[in-house]
Amino acid sequence: MASKEGEVKIVIDPHDEIGEINGNIYGHFIEHLGKCIYGGIWKEGGLDQRVVDLAKGLDPPLLRWPGGNFASGYHWIDGIGPLKDRSPKFDLAWRKIDSNTFGTNEFMKLCRILHAEPYICVNMGSGTAEEAANWVEYCNHAGGSHYSNLRIKEGEVKPFGVKYWGLGNEVYGDWQIGHCDATTYARKALEFSKRMKWVDASIKTIAVGCDDPQWNWEVLRTTKDTIDYISLHKYYYDPNYYERVAAPLEAEKSLGRLAATIFAATGERRIKIAFDEWNLWHPEAKLENGLRQSPVLADAIFAAGIFNAMHRLCSEVQIACFAQLVNVLPLIISDGEGARTTPPYLTFKLYRQHTGSKALRVRTSCETYSSKAWGDMRVPIVDVSATLDKLGKGIAIFIVNRDIEREMKCDMRIAGLENCRNAEVHELNGEGVENTDVKITRNQDISFSNEFVHVVPPHSITVIKSTIDSR
User: Has residue 260 been placed in a domain?
Assistant: First the structure.
C-alpha cells in the first residue's frame, strides 16, 4: 500500500469490525473552578439559558461533576437544602470561596435538561466512605431512609439513579487533598466502592488511574473485583502546530498501555477505561485568569485525532470527558459579550452527529513526519477512522488532514461495495490553524463506490457519509 507524496491510500472493509462504540466517549466535565460553574453555567442563582442552549447543541451523553481537584475537598451535604440556608465554604483546592448554591440537585437538573447521564466524583481527599455511601443513598435510594428522605423533602420524589461514580481524583499527585501512595489509595478505594455498592449494587465505580503502570497495577490488583473502570487524565500543549496535532497518538499509546495493564493485572478485560479529563492546555490559561484560553482550529484538529484514537480503542475506552465544558479550557465561552462556541465545540458536534455504533478497522498508507515532543514517533499526515450504524448499513468515514499547506488526494477502496451511490461530505475548516474563525460546511455530494478518489483540503476534518449494501 505504498503511497506517493500528497496521496493517501485508504482501505475499509465494512465486515472488519473493531467493536461497539460507547457514546459516552463524547462526554463532558464541569468543575467548581474559575468561571465554569459560577459565572458560566450558573448565574444569579439559576442556570444560564444561553450556555444551556449551546450545551444542548452538543447532545452531551455524559456529564462529570464536581471535580477535578475540587472534589477532593467537597462535602456534598453542604450543597443541598434551600439556597438561602447554604453556607459558603473556603475551597482548599482552588483557594476560593464557594457559595454552595450549585449542588447535587442543581447538577441533576442540568443533566435532565441536557439529557446527559450524570457522573459524580466523590471526595476521597478529606471525605469518608460513609459520606460517599450516604451520597449514593441520597441520589439513588427510593425513600424511607434518612438521606433519601432529605431528597424527597426537597421535592425530588423520584430517585436520581446516578450510575457512574468516581472514586476520588488524581490522589497520586501532591497537588491533591488526600495525596497518597497507590497501596493506600487502593485499600481506600476498595472500601469506598464496597460501601457505595452496598447501598446500590447497580452503580459503576471508576478508580483513579494515571500514566504510571506501577500505580495502575497496584490499584487494579486490589480493587479488581469491585471497580468497573479505571481513569486516565491527559493534557497536552506544544507551540509547534505539528506537535500539537500529533499528541493524540501519544494519548492512544497511553490508553493502550493502560488497557494492557488491566489485562495483565486482572487476567480479563471486564474493567474499562474512563479517559475522563483530556484537552490541550494553552500557556495563556492560568489560575489567575480562571484557566481561560482561546482555542483555535489546531484545537479542533487535535480533538478529531482524539476521537479517531478512541474509535480504534472502542473496546477498551468506554467513557471520556473533555475538560471542560464552559470557560475553563473551554468548548463554550460565556462572558459580558454573551455565550459563544469555540473550534473544538464544532469537532464534538461533527463527530457526535455522524459517528455510528460500530468502529471499523481502517488501513491507511500516507506520508509521515517525525514528532519529538511525544517520544520520537512517526505521525501519519492523514488520520482516518470509520464507523457503521447499528443496522450495519450507514457508513461514516472521518478523515483528518494535518498538513498545513497541502491538500491530500485520498484513494478510497470500500470492500464489497457493489453499486455506486451518493455520499454526503461535511467539512470542518478555517482560514488558518491558529485562527478562531472555524465552521462546518456541507459540501456537494460525491459518488461513493468500491473505488473512488476524494481530495481533502489542508488543515481539515472531513466526514464522508453514505450507505453500504445489506449485510
Answer: yes
Minimal CA–CA distance to 64: which of 303, 259, 323, 423? 323
Establish if 1 belongs to a structural domain: no
Does residue 246 sit in the same domain as residue 195? yes
Domain shared by 270 and 142, yes or no:
yes
Is position 218 annotated as part of the catalytic site? no
Do both 346 and 407 map to the same domain?
A: no
Nearest residue to 132 (alpha-carbon basis) of 95, 112, 155, 104: 104
One domain for residues 347 and 363:
no
- Decide: pTM greater than 0.90: yes
Q: Is 170 a catalytic residue?
A: yes
Give how many domains the chain has, as a whole number.
Answer: 2
Active-site position among 117, 250, 277, 427: 277
Element (H, E) at 207: strand 204-207
Q: Which three cell numbers stand for residue 2?
A: 505504498
CB 142 within 8 A of CB 95: no
Is there a single domain that holds both residue 141 and residue 266? Answer: yes
pLDDT tens for 224-253 read 999 999 999 999 999 999 999 999 999 999
Question: Which tens digits make up the pLDDT trace of 32-73?
Answer: 999 999 999 999 889 999 999 999 999 999 999 999 999 999
Q: Could you list the residue range(s) of the whole structural domain that residue 459 is in?
A: 7-17+358-467
Angle, CA 63 vertex, CA 188 and CA 48 arms, to 5°:
130
Provide Rg for the chain, Cα atoms.
23
Helix (H, G, I), strand (E, B) or coil at 448: strand
| CA 428 – CA 343 distance, rounded (Å) | 9
Cβ atoms of 388 and 341 within 8 Å: the answer is no
Domain of 201, CATH number, reads: 3.20.20.80
Q: What are the φ and ψ backbone dihedral angles of 112, each rounded to 5 degrees?
A: -65, -45
For every residue of 85-112, DSSP letters joined together read GPPPEEETTTTEEE---S-HHHHHHHHH
One domain for residues 249 and 181: yes
Q: Which of 31, 106, 137, 170 is catalytic?
A: 170
Cα separations in angstroms, 81 against 60, 100, 109, 200: 27, 10, 14, 23
Biggest distance spanned by C-alpha atoms of the chain: 70
Q: Which three cell numbers stand for residue 378?
A: 512517526
Last residue of a domain, one of 354, 386, 410: 354
Cis omega (within 30 of 0) on the bond before 444?
no
